[in-house]
Write a structure and sequence with these properties.
The protein has 121 residues and is mostly helical. The chain has a single domain, classed as Helicase, Ruva Protein, domain 3 (Orthogonal Bundle), CATH 1.10.8. It has 7 helices and 2 strands; from the N terminus they run H-H-H-H-H-E-E-H-H. The protein has helices spanning 5-13, 16-29, 34-45, 49-57, 62-67, 93-109, 114-117, and strands spanning 81-82, 85-86. It has a two-stranded antiparallel ribbon. Strand 1 (81-82) and strand 2 form a beta hairpin. This is DUF2200 family protein. It comes from Winogradskyella wandonensis. InterPro entries: SP1917_dom_sf, UCP033199.
Length: 121
């Protein structure tokens, strides 16, 4: 299923800081840590912890969040379905990157090993 322009616009306008607490809740409930979440986010975006906190404070939209991100060259290895969309079929970069992030958080919450999540093995 392909995304619509309306869906892409909605994702782009989402505030990263409004999604972030949901990520924390999801992974902590499953026995993972905030540090592991930050490791995953850093791997995907290149942002360090201070930059992540700054983007949360600035209420950065997903569009702004990913505008200056240094997306990991192995991010294309993230595949599967998230929120009803096959990641490989998403064409809009911001939507694709947001779904990459969702998929990584899901994998973390499901207990997948970190080297597998970070596409190192």
């Amino acid at each position: 299923m392909s995304t619509t322009p309306e869906h892409d616009a909605r994702v782009a306008k989402l505030i990263f800081g409004s999604v972030y607490p949901h990520y924390i809740t999801k992974i902590v409930k499953k026995g993972r840590t905030k540090e592991e979440l930050h490791q995953v986010l850093t791997w995907l975006t290149g942002y360090d912890e201070n930059q992540l906190e700054n983007l949360i404070e600035k209420k950065a939209t997903m569009e702004a969040f990913f505008a200056n991100a240094n997306i990991n060259p192995n991010a294309h290895l993230i595949k599967g379905v998230i929120c009803g969309y096959r990641i490989e079929d998403i064409e809009t970069p911001v939507t694709k990157y947001a779904r990459y992030m969702d998929k990584l958080v899901d994998e973390l919450a499901k207990g997948r090993k970190m080297d597998k999540i970070l596409r190192q093995a």
